[in-house]
Amino acid sequence: MGAVEFLNKPVVMDGIELGRAVDVFFDGSADEPIGLEVRCKDGVHRFLPISTAELGESEVTVESPLVLLDRDQLDFYRARGRALRSTR
């Protein structure tokens, strides 16, 4: 699955949509994604590490909403990682 296919996928837990993937982050020059920027239902953008999610064809599943990291962690990856939106 290509990184662009993650965009706009719902992020769900137990069938409940928590938000939508709006960007994909890569570590430096690596081609493997390390996380997603998720626009949550409360309007806040959070970081979802790929390692904490199950990536399906129609949705991204998480075990807990606690794996969605707050704004300061998202800002960390925005500053040090490479975002898919910036390469398109």
List keywords for this structure.
88 residues, alpha+beta, Photosynthetic Reaction Center, Chain H, domain 2, 7-stranded mixed sheet, globular
SS summary, helix count = 2
Structural class: alpha+beta
Q: State the shape.
A: globular
In sequence order, what are the helices and strands, one letter per element?
Answer: EEEEEEHEH
CATH topology: Photosynthetic Reaction Center, Chain H, domain 2
Q: Determine the mean pLDDT.
A: 89
CATH homologous superfamily grouping: Photosynthetic Reaction Center, subunit H, domain 2
Helix share bin: 10-25%
Strands, total number:
7
Number of domains: 1
The biggest beta sheet reads: 7 strands, mixed
Strand residue percentage: 35-45%
Oligomer: single chain
CATH architecture grouping: Alpha-Beta Complex
CATH class: Alpha Beta
CA-CA gap between termini: 17 Å
List unreliable stretches of 5+ residues. none
